[in-house]
Structures are given as structure tokens and as C-alpha cells.
Amino acid sequence: MTGEQMSKAGTSGIIVEMAVRIATPFIQLFGMYVIAHGHYSPGGGFQGGVILGSAFILLGIAFNQEMALRYFSERVNSILGSSGALIYVGTAVVCALLGGLFLDYSALDRVLPLGPVEWRSMGIFVVELGVGLAVMSIMTSLFWDLGSGGDLEKGL
Amino acid sequence: MRSLAFIAVFVTGALLLYGTRDFPAWGDPAAPAAQHVSPTYIEKSVEQTHVPNIVTAVLGDYRGYDTMFETVVIYCAGIVVIGALRNWRDEE
Questions:
Q1: Which of A87, A120, B72, B88 to pair with A12, CA 20 to 30 A apart?
Q2: What does the pLDDT read at residue A35?
Q3: Cα end-to-end distance, chain B, whole Å
Q4: pLDDT band with cut points at 50, 70 and 90 for residue B92
Q5: Which residues does chain B have within 8 Å of residue A142's beta carbon, measured at their own beta carbons?
Q6: Could you state, in order of their start, the residue ranges of all structural domains in chain A?
């Protein structure tokens, strides 16, 4: 197929498609690694969320928007993004309701006694998870809406 | 109109640059932040939070408010982009 025919059919050719098929799970795994390993190495919710979001953006570029939306529908995207922001704020509110200060994760010790200091470490992880979810879906939906002019049909 | 916008941007930028003249030099050990805040984080963060990465400890715990509203800002930006660009006509 010539380049023009390919862009009409909405595909990028078999080599790019196969490469993306193979690379996507590893990109997602690396994104989760960056989020989970933020305690020990550079990384965290923002960086890992962007990597996770880029996996879906790559699907949208290499195939088309419909293909990407089959794996990550707009509805799931909105739910995940909202719950990510809710996890962060909710953790902070739960800390306040349990008798600590707002965002004082050591108060979560009253739910599951791991020790106040250990809970500060765990609290950071929970919060990073929320940041990662929110950033992932916002990145993806930014690309989808900007790339397709709001129709979510063909994309770039 | 365009020249007015340019003047506004230029004046704001000049004011911001003028404001940075009062900042302590980058990495200055006598800067207020380096006097007690940074040493406390470096000495106590592992003991207080059990997180070996000081950056993560500061980002997620000591400066939790900042990170929380960063997330809220990103979330709001996404909602606004969806609200402004998403074309709902086909589904009605």
C-alpha cells in the first residue's frame, strides 16, 4: 500500500502495528513499575501516569481511535480519572476523620495497625496511585479530544 | 489589541524577572530554605516516613497539599478540555 492508501484505510502498516502490539504491554508494565517504585528510585504518580497514558496514545496513533477506545472506553476513562482524584482527596479526608490532620497518613494506623511511620510510607503509595490514575486518563482523554476534534471517531 | 496584549505580557514578564533579583543565589547555603528546612528533610525523612527517596517523601508527605492540588488542577484541565472539545451531537 502507498502512504495515501494507508492513511485512507486508517492503518500504519503491519510492521508498525505488530511493533505496537508487542510494545504496549511492556510500556504499561514499565508505567506501573515507575509508579510502584517511586519510593526507591526517580518516579512516582505523575511520571508513571504519563507512561501509562502514552500506551493508549500509541494505540490511537498506530491503529485508530476506535481501536484504542475498544480497549479503553471513554466511560472507563472518565471513571478511572475521577476515582484517581478521589483516591487522593479521599485518603486525606479519611485521615482527618480518623482523628489525625488532613493528609496526615499516620492516622490510618487506626484502620490497620502497621505503625504510624510505616503508614506514612503506605499513604504516599496510595496517593501516588491516585495521581497515576488521574494523570493516565487525563493524558489519554486530552489526546483523544484534541486529536479527533471532539468526535472520537478517527483520530490522527 | 495585539500590541496591547504584547505590552501586558512584556510588562508582566519584566516584573517577574525583576522580582527574581531578590532571590538567593541558586544553591546558596545561606538561603532561608537551606538553613533549617532542607537539613530537616535530609536528616529526618527516612526516619519519619520510611521512604528512602527524599523527593518522594517531600512530594507525597511533607508537601502533600501541593501535590493534591496539582492533581486537582490536572483533573480540572482535563474536564475543561472534554467540556470544550467533545462533540456530543451524534449521540443525541
A1: B88
A2: 93
A3: 40
A4: low
A5: 77-78, 81
A6: 12-148
Question: How buried is residue A144: exposed, middle or buried, by Cβ count under 10 Å (0-12/13-18/19+)?
Answer: buried
| Residue B51 near chain A (CB below 8 Å) | yes
Of chain B, the percentage scoring pLDDT greater than 70 comes to 97
Closest CA to A155 of A68, A81, A53, A49: A68
Instruction: Please answer yes or no on whether B78 and A138 come within 8 Å at the CB atom.
Output: yes
Whether A131 and A88 have beta carbons less than 8 Å apart is answered as yes
Is the ipTM, as predicted for this complex, more than 0.90?
no
Verify whether the Cβ–Cβ distance B53 to A149 is below 8 Å. no
- Chain A residues close to B74, C-beta within 8 Å: 134-135, 138
Q: What is the pTM of this model?
A: 0.83
> Which chain B residues are Cβ-neighbours of A117 within 8 angstroms?
47-50
For B90, counting Cβ atoms within 10 Å of its Cβ (0-12 exposed, 13-18 middle, 19+ buried), the class is: exposed
Cα distance between residue A32 and residue A20, in whole Å? 18
What band does A11 get if pLDDT is binned at 50, 70 and 90?
low
3-state secondary structure of A116: helix
Exposure class string for A67-106: b at 16+ Cβ within 10 A, else e: ebbeebebeebeebbbebbebbbebbebbeeeebeebbbb
